[in-house]
Design a protein that fits this description.
- This is DNA-binding protein.
- Pfam families: OB_ChsH2_C, zf-ChsH2.
- Keywords: DNA-binding.
- InterPro entries: ChsH2_C (IPR002878), ChsH2_Znr (IPR022002), NA-bd_OB-fold (IPR012340), Thioester_dehydratase-like (IPR052513).
- About 5% of the residues lie in helices and about 35% in strands.
- The chain has about 150 residues and is mainly β.
- It has a single domain, classed as OB fold (Dihydrolipoamide Acetyltransferase, E2P).
- A hairpin with a 5-residue loop joins strand 1 and strand 2.
- The protein is globular and about 45 Å long.
C-alpha cells in the first residue's frame, strides 16, 4: 500500500550556480525552468551557458509544462541519509516538451511496485533553506489529469 508523500527531515540542498539558479528557484512561482536555445529551439538540461546542439550562446531558462514520463528509475532500499528513509525512488524524467531532455529527481506518491517506465508524471516543488539560500526542489508525482500514453 502506498503512503502519501511526507517531506523528509533532511535533504542535501543544491548549491546553485549562475547557470542553474533559475532551475532551483523557478519553483517559487510553480515553474519548472529549463534552459532553451533561442537559435535552434531545443531545451537542454543540465543548465549551461551554451547550447550543446548548435553551440549558440543565445540560451535562457524557459518555463516548461512540468509534465513528463518516467524514462528510467531505481528504488533505493538503503538509508544513506538520516531523515530520508527508504524506500524512495530516483528517476529520470523525460520532459514532455523535448524527449531528449531528462531531469533526475524523486518520484513520490506511488507504490514502488506500481512504478514503471512510461508512467506520466507532473512536477511539484519542495522549498528548502532560508533567505538567499532558498531553493525549490522539483519532485514528481503521478499525473492526475492525463490519459495513458498522452505524454509519450
Amino acid at each position: 500500500m502506498m503512503n502519501a508523500y511526507t517531506r523528509p527531515d533532511f535533504r542535501l540542498p543544491p548549491q546553485p550556480t549562475a547557470e542553474s539558479a533559475a532551475f532551483w528557484t523557478g519553483g517559487e512561482r510553480g515553474k519548472l525552468l529549463v534552459m532553451r536555445c533561442r537559435a535552434c529551439g531545443h531545451f537542454f538540461h543540465p543548465p549551461a551557458p551554451v547550447c550543446f546542439r548548435c553551440r549558440s550562446l543565445d540560451v535562457a531558462p524557459e518555463a516548461t509544462s512540468g509534465r513528463g514520463t518516467v524514462a528510467a528509475f531505481t528504488v533505493n532500499q538503503q538509508q544513506w541519509l538520516p531523515g530520508l528513509p527508504p524506500p524512495y525512488v530516483v528517476a529520470m524524467i523525460e520532459l514532455a516538451e523535448d524527449h531528449d531532455v531528462r531531469v533526475t529527481s524523486n518520484v513520490v506518491d506511488v507504490d514502488p511496485k506500481d512504478l514503471r517506465v512510461g508512467l506520466p508524471v507532473e512536477v511539484f516543488f519542495e522549498e528548502w533553506g532560508e533567505g538567499e539560500d532558498r531553493v525549490w526542489i522539483p519532485l514528481f508525482q503521478p499525473a492526475t489529469d492525463t490519459h495513458e500514453g498522452e505524454l509519450a
